[in-house]
Design a protein that fits this description.
about 300 residues; nine-stranded mixed beta sheet; 10 helices; about 20% strand; globular
Length: about 300
């Protein structure tokens, strides 16, 4: 059995594959591992680029399965001590994976660990260490209170901005761009919920892992570079360089907000009064319409 299985889902990722593969090959030196790529029916030259790296085991899907369902194709059929979910638009320094494996082997109560995920400008990708999106946390984020008072636990719990970036801390959720999961924790929590097409499935999986009693940890002693949002085109910092069509961007905006509906209904609806549920749903819809309006005005 492999020590580590790396699972990556691609969609129109041809421009990122070479850098991703070359860095990962070095980072996995000396580790009994395998790398699986599931391509979600890319329309660019991703499939051609993947063939240039024969050490990558590839599955070419005839349709876009979404993130969770594509990952499950591999997670369902492979066995490893650890699984690393890694985005194709990442660069992995040579010691990052070894440090993460070592941390899991030393801390046997940790079910999932993530590293410091940096954006292209060197700043922390706040999504890599999050609190679960309770109604209060979601409201503070929608009202930008988390940006006004980010260093307070009351208002900074959505992205845990009250915690120092340079220290190891327990968190609620990591981001699917880099999640190293203990095989036993994944077995107990189950695979990705395929009701989530894109976005939210990583938070949902973390929620279920913690429900099983495992810790989830942010460990910034190692890091990766993440050129975030290139394939979807809906992130502000990468919108201009993304080749995603306007129609695809609109679909991703829909899936992003639909994931919020699914997560809330699955985990919180029964715990809160009906009036609050209606308020939360209205807030999500308003946020989605605002994002679609901005997309239309920008004309990408």
């Amino acid at each position: 059995m492999n020590k580590l299985t790396v699972v990556t889902v691609t969609y129109n990722s041809a421009a990122q594959i070479k850098r991703y593969a070359n860095s990962l090959r070095v980072a996995l030196t000396g580790i009994a591992s395998e790398i699986w790529i599931i391509d979600n029916a890319s329309k660019d030259k991703t499939a051609i680029e993947l063939k240039k790296h024969p050490f990558l085991k590839t599955i070419l899907s005839a349709q876009n399965l979404g993130f969770g369902k594509a990952n499950n194709l591999v997670l369902r059929k492979t066995k490893s001590d650890y699984f690393l979910l890694l985005n194709p638009d990442t660069v992995t320094p040579k010691n990052t994976i070894k440090k993460m494996i070592s941390y899991l082997e030393t801390n046997t109560d940790v079910g999932l660990v993530t590293c410091r995920v940096e954006k292209a400008d060197g700043t922390l990708d706040l999504a890599c260490r999050r609190g679960f999106p309770t109604p209060w946390r979601s409201i503070t984020r929608m009202l930008y209170l988390d940006r006004v008072l980010p260093s307070t636990k009351l208002f900074g719990s959505y992205n845990l901005t009250y915690l120092p970036e340079e220290k190891i801390n327990d968190i609620d959720s990591a981001v699917g761009a880099f999640m190293m999961i203990r095989g036993q924790a994944l077995k107990e929590a189950g695979l990705f919920d395929e009701k989530f097409f894109m976005y939210g499935e990583d938070i949902d999986l973390c929620y279920r892992i913690k429900k099983k009693g495992w810790r989830i940890v942010y460990n910034p002693t190692a890091k990766i570079l993440h050129l975030k949002g290139v394939s979807t085109g809906i992130k502000d910092h990468s919108a201009k360089i993304s080749k995603a069509s306007k129609e695809h961007r609109a679909k991703m905006i829909y899936h992003f907000h639909e994931a919020m509906h699914i997560f809330y209904n699955k985990h919180y609806k029964k715990s809160y009064p009906a009036w609050l549920t209606k308020l939360v749903m209205a807030g999500i819809n308003l946020k989605m319409y605002a994002a679609l309006t901005r997309l239309k005005l920008r004309g990408y």
